[in-house]
Design a protein that fits this description.
Blueprint (H helix, E strand, L loop, with lengths): L14 E8 L10 E8 L11 E3 L2 E6 L2 E7 L22 H23 L14 E4 L8 E4 L4 E4 L1 E2 L2 E2 L4 H16 L2 H4 L3 H20 L2 H10 L15 E2 L1 H6 L7 E2 L25 H25 L4 H21 L9 H15 L5 H10 L24 E6 L11 E6 L9 H18 L3 E3 L20 E5 L5 E5 L2 E2 L1
Parallel strand pairs: 3-6, 6-8, 15-16
Antiparallel strand pairs: 1-2, 4-5, 7-8, 7-18, 9-10, 11-12, 13-14, 16-17
Helix pairs in contact: 1-2, 1-8, 2-4, 4-7, 4-8, 5-8, 7-8, 7-10, 8-9, 9-10
Amino acid sequence: MNITSASSVAPRAVASQVKFSNNPQDVDALPNDTVSIPNVDPNNGKPISDSVALENKKGIFILGQMVGMKPDPNYKLTPNADGEFVYGDKDKNFNGANAYGAVSATVNKYNEVLGSIGAEKINWAFNKPQLKVSPETGEYPNAFYARQYEGLHFFHYKTTSTAASGEVASHETGHAILDARRPGFMEGSGAETGAFHEAFGDTTAMLMTLGNARAVDAIVAQTDGTGDLSTKRNMLSDMGEAFGHALGREGGIRTAKNEFVYADPATLPEQGDETHLGREVHDFSRLWSGAFYDVLDGISDANRAAGMTPQQALSAAGDEAWKLMVGQVELSPKASETTFHEMASNLLAADAQYNNGARAAVIKSVMVKRGLMDADAAPPTRQNGARLFNADPVKQEFTFGADAGQLAGVKMTATVDQPAFGLVGLQNSVTTEAEKGARLMAQDGNVLFTDKQNPDLGDFFRQDGTAYSAYVAPNAKGEREFHRVQIAF
């Protein structure tokens, strides 16, 4: 539904506030709650706002392999007698209400913070007004954002549904938001670029959790009444507890309470474990999520030292960290690659520009400990909106050499910012990251080689349920080209 349709179409019946089921975590971690979303049209059980629409799709599976998706026009929520969408977690409507409420709340909060730092609100990378939410897509052990399908897709798996977790929903919304603000990152192949995308989803989920009073109370209880995030794992540090349990894990699917220190992804195995990093993007993302978690911990510690209660300290840390995280992205280049070191610098710059430099010492201490910043790093100089890059990035094409194995002779295009202020060497760093990441993807068997110019969604999924990260396909001239799969899990 296009809400900017012609004036001959009757205006939508928008309610000032509509209440939805909401759990910023999941039922394995926290009792269910509700959230009120402004400016929603109930739309006969298919709620829609200016930025988010409930629009279910059904995955098409053959022998357990997803080969495509089709519209599900009959899916809708049955509203309560009072017109709200609040249900018990066993109700068939719960997953849809929880996913829609969590996605909408996350988008609205991000737009609120963008406004507070003088930035324009989100415009989706697929150039449509609404991000679509598909809460009942089928049986599959995951959830994902797909640019070409204009939205987020959630699935049942064993004892749970990823739509039943507000934490998972906020993580996937983070992918969509980052794709909107920096679409080049979804097209980048660098291991650190993909890992930052995953970590950004996790940190977005963390901050949404800290915005819920019940969750904050529970975190304080889990940390022995102190609110000290460094004491033990808790619902803030752990991602997707219910999904983790369905996968046979004691905690969530990963944790930000870790001690990882930077290593070049090319020197790491594809998969790590609880105490070792791997280069796979979800695995390597734990380094950045852990660093951000440490920054939250440091801010909260300072708040308690200033006289706040544990609950106040955590809530205030979340509010402050929103400005840091959003500002970090706004100060980042528009290239197709980034690195954790670059993002560490951007976080420090965001603190200087949007937070009066209040947390510079905390940020630098964490980033130095994590190997993401030099101890003698100069303070950020980006003031009054000054940027290191010109506004319009450019495309730069290159061809893999004969030593690239299956990628030899394949063409690749990277998006490169044009450096301002006479800076040099930045273009080469982007193409270097892109080429290194593509080689690692091929080495790990994560590149699909196909004769189709335009592969279908089903081509990207393997029979074991995993998906390729990139593909090589012929262009109109018959030249082989490397492309990232624009799906984020």
